[in-house]
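# nightly structure sweep
# worker-07 picked up a monomer target from the shared queue
# config: single-sequence mode, recycle default, output format = structure tokens
# input follows
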Amino acid sequence: MKEEKNSRRSFLTKTIAGISGSVIATGLPLSALASNTNSEVPDSKHDFLTKPYLQAPTNDGITIMWLTNQLCLNWVEYGETEKLGIKAQQCAHGMMNINSRINTVTLTNLKPDTTYYYKVFSKQILDFQPYKITFGDIINSETYYFKTLNPKAKEVSWLVLNDIHDRPKSFGELIQLNQNKPYDFVFLNGDMFDYQTDENQIINHLLNPCSLFSTEKPFMLVRGNHETRGKYSRNLLDYYYNYDKKEYYTFKMGPVFTIVLDTGEDKKDSHPVYGGTVNYDSYREEQAVWLEKQMKSKAFKNAPFRVVMMHIPHYHSDEEHGTTECRRLFGPLFEKYKIDLFVAGHTHEYGMFEPNKDHSHHFVIGGGPETGIRTLIRIEANTKVLNLQMLNDSGKEIGLFQLNSKR
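# output follows
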């Protein structure tokens, strides 16, 4: 199933535009921020740059992140009622995570299938001396809530967006097509940006648009080939938190075991645009070894449904180096261990493909960034049936797969 053609190569020649905003950006990696002072924003009011956003939910925990414009001591207060009552701070090697602007607190030892309320706090650090720390104002967020996963859940549902390419309004416009149907998380399947420029771009074109849902529903992200480009691409990893803090990972929710792969770049590592600074060939090889181990696990074998999500599709795409390497390394494993569903983006041309001689699983590619070819994918599953529905950006259903469990 295909709709309006779009020249992806033509699109990729366009330059990023409209990245602006009032937030403060330092252009420094997290390690540098941790040892920096507040001198870069001496006249700024102590404030949040983002609302808190949820990451990596589990049966007994979740990670909460947020950004401030000043260096701070940070914590989360949470509880099973709006009275909160429990305080959590990130601590490593006996030291609290302080003097930072990109703030991460992982809550642990929570009850499964339980609603928790939370609020984040940031205490400004005015001066950090070896034997004296001078603090300033404390700011706090509103009270939000989340629900831990139920290990006995029989159902799960999620939304998939891909190839937004620095169009922040698309998040809200596409999510609203879901029409308030319940979902557990949003998966961002690569190319949220054209390339990485600075912190402003990450805040204005990802974190703040996602705040429509991410204070109460987590988002998960995998890099597309465009998340590997630009001077700030290596800093991007500081702004979200995947399972095991990796760019490729697995998770099981309800009846679905999901594998997420990071497909890297589509060009050869030797391409002159990289100047000898990348090694995605070895990275994909590393993932292939890891992938087979996951597929041999009991959790994978016993799951009613097995889903793979990654950015570059290994079929129904082009013959670029990244595509063919994914086909060589990952494709045979998908066939050997029998996945049920594959979901990708990248081509800017949506497609839904039944099993065929190349792939024995259902194969889905989301649409592109421009109005008229954007898509929202909704997936919901119980122990017997998985349904995938694709909508175009006018809200019209343009594809539907119904899969019956084979296990």
